[in-house]
């Protein structure tokens, strides 16, 4: 009799299917699962960003990834005075600097690797002030 009272009290409507039609515990709502070989958006975007294109840069034909082309386009916009592009490039540069600084704290680096990172960090630290002078 408890079942009869539960059936009467359960309100069926939008987002509330009849109890008999609800997923049973332990049963997947998608039993076949995702198709093999299907890609998610993140993988698709990464593949497209890594795809190489033939472009003319500095008067030479070069093969660049879409990622590199996008960064170069932002840099060119910043050179022309686009302040938003300039801020984005500086933020990207600061992120690169933070990555290098993070790796400087590692203890598993050889002396040669540490020298390379130190030189790169010095380059990154000097670069933003030079870029600010040019624009």
Automatic annotation (TrEMBL):
Residues 1-60 are annotated as: Disordered. Pfam families: DUF5681. Residues 40-60 have a biased composition (Basic and acidic residues). InterPro entries: DUF5681. Residues 19-92 form the DUF5681 domain. Residues 21-30 have a biased composition (Polar residues). It comes from the Bacteria. This is DUF5681 domain-containing protein. It comes from Aestuariivirga litoralis.
């Amino acid at each position: 009799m408890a079942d009869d009272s539960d059936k009467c009290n359960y309100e069926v409507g939008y987002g509330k299917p009849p109890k008999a039609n609800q997923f049973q515990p332990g049963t997947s709502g998608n039993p076949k699962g995702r198709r093999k070989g299907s890609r998610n958006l993140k993988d698709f975007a990464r593949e497209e960003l890594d795809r190489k294109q033939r472009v003319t840069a500095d008067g030479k034909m070069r093969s660049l990834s879409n990622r590199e082309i996008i960064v170069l386009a932002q840099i060119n916009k910043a050179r022309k005075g686009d302040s938003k592009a300039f801020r984005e490039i500086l933020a990207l540069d600061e992120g690169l600097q933070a990555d290098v600084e993070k790796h400087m704290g590692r203890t598993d680096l050889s002396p040669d690797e540490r020298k390379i990172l130190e030189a790169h960090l010095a380059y990154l630290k000097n670069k933003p002030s030079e870029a600010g002078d040019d624009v």
